[in-house]
Design a protein that fits this description.
Order of helices and strands: HEHHEEH
Structural class: mainly alpha
Distance between the termini: 43 Å
Strand order of the largest sheet: 1-3-2
Largest sheet: 3 strands, antiparallel
Radius of gyration: 13 Å
Helix content: 55-70%
Strand content: 5-15%
Amino acid sequence: MSVAPEATERLMTPGEVAAMFRVDPKTVTRWAAAGRIGSIRTPGGHRRFRESEVRTLLDGLTSEAHG
């Protein structure tokens, strides 16, 4: 039986994402609310972010900054 990639992918907290971007966790939550980054809601209502999507967004921003 195969498992969907989303099911095995690591999910990151707003704090972990914020540390990667060097911003406040509330900024990450605002980005999610504005649709700039996709998020998943846990049964408890917390936001989680797919690591692959976060890394893609970060790579895009860093290549713009250095390009």
